[in-house]
Amino acid sequence: MKETFTAPEPRSGATPHRPGRRPARAPAATAATALPPAPAALAAKVRMLGPTMTRSMQRVAEAVAGDPAGCAALTVTGLAERTGTSEATVVRTARTLGYPGYRDLRLALAGLAAQQESGAAPAVTADIAVDDPLPDVIAKLAREEQQCLADTAAGLDATQLDAAVTALAGARRIDVYGIGASNLVAQDLAQKLLRIGLSAHAHADPHLAMTGAVQLRAGDAAVAISHSGRTVDVLEPLRTAFDRGATTVAVTGRPDGEITQYADHVLTTSPARESELRPAAMSSRTSQLLVVDCLFIGVAQRTHDTAAPALAASYEALAHRHNPRG
């Protein structure tokens, strides 16, 4: 008689291990179902997707971003020769950026060049110099912040955002992870969710984050915020939450980063430009705040019947602290 193997029952209260996996992403839009990016969005797409491309594709992307007018005048063969790549690489780059083919990318490049010439689509902001007067610093920072927000908005996947909102709106408990500047964003999201009546926690101490993560289970949610996508003190609690069965969300500037292996939903921020006087954490924080604000508004809309009275109650409870003489 042939013996059969029966796996042992898990210990009472134990959570079965769920191996790391990348989340199922929404299928890429085709030319028949979606319009290619507008010229203004092309520059954002290049900045957003460049880090995830192969080196040869990056050369093509850098060329079209740096000289849209010059590249618009080139045939597919000409652009391949200019970048030291192949015609196939040029076409793959165009499709990665959301265009059916090189002809469509070329038209967008011509449109972007025209916008830049008219001043409607400014070129990349100059770095802040050590001897810049403060009025120039203000102008450069404002331009850079605007660019970060525009790039993040252009690259944010509405389908992934909607799924993340659904998960948070229905969660029994929400843990938010972030270290350094990202922890400031994590605290911001947690306190907003708390004010609309949700059970949300953000721990600056990574040990407390892990302690909270092991308590999560199916029906809970965890949000991890890491621009690099590889911060250990963010990855570990996210992976633990993932293994425990919680729905997980990653907010990151690296859609190819390790963090996405343990995220059911990935929300991508713009790449952070770093210079001597502007650390990457400054621009990444700006992008992250936009994403968590989108999350919060979406959740508040989805839970409006309970969120509105909870928010009103929190305002009332704190009113005398804002105006003690009133």
UniProtKB/TrEMBL annotation:
Pfam families per the record? Answer: HTH_6 (PF01418), SIS (PF01380)
Q: Does the keyword Nucleotide-binding apply?
A: no
Query: What is this protein called in UniProt?
Result: MurR/RpiR family transcriptional regulator
Stretches of Low complexity bias are at: 25-34
Q: Which molecular-function annotations from GO does this UniProt entry contain?
A: carbohydrate derivative binding; DNA binding; DNA-binding transcription factor activity
Residue ranges occupied by any HTH rpiR-type domain in the UniProt entry = 40-116
Residue ranges of every copy of the SIS domain listed in the record: 164-305
Source species: Streptomyces xinghaiensis
Q: Which domain of life is it from?
A: Bacteria
Q: List every stretch annotated Disordered.
A: 1-34
> Which SUPFAM superfamilies does the record associate with it?
Homeodomain-like, SIS domain
Q: Which InterPro entries match?
A: Homeodomain-like_sf, HTH_RpiR, RpiR-like, RpiR-like_SIS, SIS_dom, SIS_dom_sf, WH-like_DNA-bd_sf
Coiled coil among keywords: no
GO BP field: carbohydrate derivative metabolic process
Keywords in alphabetical order: DNA-binding, Transcription, Transcription regulation
